[in-house]
Amino acid sequence: MPPFGLLHRRAWASLFGQLLRPSGLVCIGEVHFHSQDFDIAGQFDPMIPDAECLKIMCEVLSGLQLGDFLIKIPWKDVRHEMVAKKGLAPEVADRIGDYVQRHGGVSLVEEMFQDSRLSQNKQALEGLGDLRLLFEYLTLFGIAEKISFDLSLARGLDYYTGVIYEAVLLQTPAQAEECLNVGSVAAGGRYDGLVGVFDPKGHTVPCVGLSIGVERIFAILEERMKTAGLKIRTTETQVFVATPQKNFLHERLKLISELWDAGIKAELLYKNNPKLLTQLHYCEHMGIPLVVIIGEQELKEGVIKLRSVASREEVAIKRENLVAEIQKKLSES
Question: Where does the Anticodon-binding domain lie (predicted)?
């Protein structure tokens, strides 16, 4: 069976990009802000799942149309692992760091392979091989230009065991004045030792994953909508089912069931006898575009009133034509 991440990656990226809300395919976590996570666990060949996580991060951020972004990979953590865990001489690691600081990217990796001092060290060549492999996969995914090493980047989560990354938005000076400074909007990395901490037998399960900062993205989108003078909708409801009559709950329930069966996002107030004005005010407050109204007169005539919340115009529609007329109105909006 494919690993969780590879099995559901497309569905996860699509769902997140469209809904921006938790789904059954992913884990929800909180570090310093609400986030939505994607992880791949299991023993695989080097850099393949790591590259896919970076690809997913690019897909989500591109789909949200937040603007240009850059995913940063910190040299500080790479150097520590090379020296402390891989036994690489500090001066060799510093030499690599100098290259990364000056240029970065796939061309830098190839340049380092030509360095006479680095080429004499087996461990340095192994590390460069991993970097070359990662950038090879990132190039095949078409995202290599979105990835950059960054010496200034550091994360305080001590369970990471390999390269970590953060995504930040690239803003023009004008955009920087208008938008909130929210820091990174996505982050992730490799944490091969975390699962073993919770396993009584201490089994090691290599893992790599990412988190998308839902709360921070919401803050950016809300600020941009306010700047543009747009009203922020807090519901996906397309149609509200209302009535001016008492004792019409059964009719409202039958009507909303028809709309649900047609795939229309509809709702009603959970009250037996709500006032019509209360129902209409609710639609205006929530930004619900359409209202269908059923009462005694409509029931006798076999019609339903369809009301535009924005214009307050109402038209009588034959009940059998209601779904088609609603779908037409929604497609035009």
Answer: 238-329
Separation of alpha carbons 65 and 288, rounded Å: 24
Contacts of 78 (CB under 8 A, 6+ apart): 149, 163
Q: Highest-confidence range of 68-77, 148-157, 160-169, by mean pLDDT?
A: 160-169
Query: What angle, rounded to 10 degrees, do the helices at 4-19 and 48-63 form?
Result: 10
Please give the annotated binding residues for L-histidine, written as ranges: 39, 155, 159-160
β-partners of residue 166 are: 72, 187
Mean per-residue pLDDT over the chain, rounded: 80
Question: What φ, ψ does residue 157 adopt, rounded to 5°?
Answer: -80, 110
pLDDT in tens, 311-321: 999 999 999 99
**Residues in binding site:** 39, 155, 159-160
Q: Compute the residue count for the chain.
A: 333
At 234, give phi and psi (nearest 5°).
-110, 10
Please report the pLDDT score of residue 110 as a whole number: 81
